[in-house]
Amino acid sequence: MIKIFMVNLSAVSGDKLSYSDSRDIIDKVHSGDLGGLYCGESLPAAIDGVLQSNSYMYPIINGGVPMLVEGYHLVNQNEMLNSENRLEDMVKAQLKQMEKFSEMHKKYYDQVTEAQQKVLREDYYGMLHGGASVLDIGNGGLTAHAQLGAEHADKVSRFFALDRSYHMLTRNGIHDGQIIGDAFKLPFADNSVDYITVNGVLHHFGRKRGDDRDAKLIAFIKEAMRVASKGLICLELAVPRYAEFAESVVLRVMGDMPTFVFSTHSLLKIVEKSGFKPEQVISKRIGQMLPPPLTVVPPILDYEWLKIPIVLLPYYMLYFVIRK
Ligand SMILES: C[S@@+](CC[C@H](N)C(=O)[O-])C[C@H]1O[C@@H](n2cnc3c(N)ncnc32)[C@H](O)[C@@H]1O
Questions:
Q1: Which pLDDT belongs to residue 65?
Q2: Are the C-beta atoms of residues 323 and 288 closer than 8 Å to each other?
Q3: Angle at alpha carbon of residue 100, lines to 248 and 79, rounded to 5°
Q4: How far from each other are the two terminal CA atoms of the chain, in whole angstroms?
Q5: Residue 241: phi, psi to the nearest 5?
Q6: Residue 212, pLDDT score
Q7: Cα radius of gyration (the chain)
Q8: What is the pTM of this model?
Q9: Which of 293, 306, 289 is nearest to 235 (CA)?
């Protein structure tokens, strides 16, 4: 297995590095002048490139291998949002939505997450045994134990937690060892982890009126399969086709939607269109799973006042695996 390390920009040079400082690095990279840039006391190595993922930049150290230094600090996302940067409006809206979600999660969704993971632990995570390395995309602040359960967490060799939202990633008070990054530009080399897990993330990619409906999901699947040497284990929220059609009408009126939930039918078709075959497909109506069916949740993040018993929601949980 290829050894992967990655360093967060704030760890570069050992001191706190602001977003504007990091522009200097980018300028230097563009001008080809990398001499004199080092990544600090913890890792005295020269930086010979920068891997860019949306507004996050990862120095590449010693010949193209992204570096992860234990104990580095996460860049505060608010600084990034407020600084002049290249984030699209929809991405800014999504990050704001996640900031709110990080506060609501414990109150409404922890129980739902636990119920979803039970299925993954029983039917899917056995394939990680034997020391697999795992990259969890859209991690939302979970440790390996919280996500995989003790029975599986002890059987993997590495667990990388990556999320685009600082607030989600740190919502449980963990501030070390996670990776701020974008699912579409993973700061990892080809085939550098065994498995990728992605739970409840795809509907947060959103949609824009006029965009090719399938393009984002296909781009994500290809990017994930570039990095995973064995496969992708996916759990995703899905709706019946009539509800997906209703969302498309709303999309036409609104112009963009920061969250868009696909139907099971569309999701599986899109996976196939990306050139892979979904295997071990399980679909469960959310009301049939634990937590208790009368648990109330706000199904639309932006309207916390609208709470509905989980048994009445038309959501399905769709599980599948893509193998390489
Ligand atoms: C509903 S939460 C799921 C969190 C966690 N996987 C779980 O099961 O509890 C969705 C997560 O996906 C993250 N996310 C959305 N789009 C992303 C992207 N393009 N790159 C990385 N993370 C993303 C969000 O920030 C959020 O934390």
A1: 36
A2: no
A3: 110
A4: 15
A5: -65, -30
A6: 97
A7: 20
A8: 0.80
A9: 289
Residues of the chain with pLDDT below 50 are 1-22, 29, 34-45, 52-56, 61-84
| Distance from C-alpha of 207 to C-alpha of 230, rounded to nearest angstrom | 29
Long-range residue pairs from 80-84, CB within 8 A, at least 24 positions apart, any chain: 80/19, 80/55, 80/56, 83/19, 83/20
Tokens 């590449």: give the residue: 60
Length of the chain: 324
Q: Which mutation among 124, 134, 168, 199 tests ligand 1's pocket best, with the greatest number of atoms within 8 A of CB?
A: 168
- At the fourth CATH level, the homologous superfamily of domain 89-323 is Vaccinia Virus protein VP39 (3.40.50.150)
Q: What is the pLDDT of residues 101-126, one digit of tens each?
A: 888 888 888 888 888 899 999 999 99
Cβ 268 vs Cβ 280: under 8 Å: no
Residue 267 CB coordination number (10 Å)? 25
Residue 252 Cα, ligand 1 centroid: separation in angstroms? 25
Structure tokens at 310: 């989980």
What are the residue ranges of CATH 3.40.50.150 in the chain? Answer: 89-323
Phi, psi of 81 (to 5 degrees): -65, -35
**Both structure tokens of 47:** 């930086």
| Pocket test residue of 81, 116, 164 for ligand 1, highest count of atoms within 8 A of CB | 164
pLDDT for 191 equals 84
